[in-house]
Amino acid sequence: MYYSDAVNSYQKTRVETVDDLKLVIMCYDATIRDLEDAKKLHQGQAMEATYEKIRHAQDIITELLVGLDYDRGGVIAQNLSKLYNFLLRQLVGINSRKDTAMYDHLIRILSELRSAWEQVRLNSLREVPVPTPAPARAWGVSA
Q: What pTM was estimated for this model as a whole?
């Protein structure tokens, strides 16, 4: 019981203290993991467990969707909205299909989006301006 509480506390703290871009990447990671697990469960005919993984993936994608900032994101936010809605539509009946190939298609889309967000994050970390020391600013010198 104590171990479980400690793990839950750690995970909560990890999510609450991470930067926004890293949180988005973590959401993609969790969704990809859910779909990989769901595919395996589906292939093993464990449909109730498959449904739980799919439902969790849907919840995460829904959070990504409602978290879009259309004012700041413009066309990118609109395109992400379309992609997220596509993913959600595909997940609605995925567990009733015999073929599990759709999982691979959705995982590929999510993996590409994850890679793009990772690149955005890396670029944003490199663009952090180095503060100019106060004496240099007073003399109009920039770093």
A: 0.76
Angstrom distances, CA of residue 121 to CA of 24, 27, 36, 65, 128: 10, 14, 25, 19, 11
For residue range 17-29, what is the model confidence (pLDDT) as tens digits?
A: 468 999 999 999 9
Would you identify the CATH topology of the domain 21-125?
A: Four Helix Bundle (Hemerythrin (Met), subunit A) (1.20.120)
Distance of CA 83 to the CA centre of its chain: 13
Domain ranges of the chain: 21-125
Residue 118: φ, ψ to 5°: -60, -40
Calpha distance 66→81 (Å, rounded): 9
Instruction: Please name the residue that has the structure tokens 């997220």.
Output: 84
What is the Cβ-side half-sphere exposure of residue 38, based on CA atoms within 13 angstroms?
30
Q: Tell me how far apart the alpha carbons of residues 102 and 38 are, in angstroms, rounded to a whole number.
A: 11
DSSP per residue over 29-70, as a string? HHHHHHHHHHHHHHHTT-HHHHHHHHHHHHHHHHHHHHT--H
